[in-house]
Amino acid sequence: MTSILEPVRTRAPRPRRKDVREEAQSSAAWTTPEGELLLEKLETGVYRLGSDDGVRGFVEQAGKVYVVLHGAVYATAVEVGQKLDFDEAVELLRELS
């Protein structure tokens, strides 16, 4: 017998949908005419783009939008754009540097 005070579950809970980026590698590197670039995952939704010269900036996921931050220090980096596609956000940051 069910008490009035006990919650009644009417359907099974939905499984949490995993973000594709969570399953991806934590870093990626590629060579450009300017030198080697390294994209590192710092934490869930935050990526750092660096090169031989140092850190170029960050890409932060905010819901469905990727915010592009230009600067070497995350806390003081300046927002320079927003993209709906992760690859476009990284490309914008590469073009700025």
What would a concise description of this structure say?
With 97 residues, this protein is α+β, with helices and mostly antiparallel strands. The protein contains two helices and six strands.
Main attributes of the structure:
97 residues, alpha+beta, six-stranded antiparallel β-sheet, 2 helices, 6 strands, 15% helix, 43% strand, elongated
Q: Which bin fits the share of residues in helices?
A: 10-25%
Rg from alpha-carbon coordinates: 19 Å
What letter string, H or E per element, gives the SSE order? HEEEEEEH
Shape: elongated
Structural class from helices and strands? alpha+beta
- Overall pLDDT: 79
Tally of structural domains: 1
Q: Could you give a short account of the major beta sheet?
A: 6 strands, antiparallel
Distance between the termini: 67 Å
Number of helices: 2
Helix-strand blueprint:
Elements: H1 20-23, E1 27-32, E2 35-43, E3 46-51, E4 54-62, E5 65-70, E6 78-83, H2 86-96
Antiparallel strand pairs: 1-2, 2-3, 3-4, 4-5, 5-6
Region (Disordered): 1-29
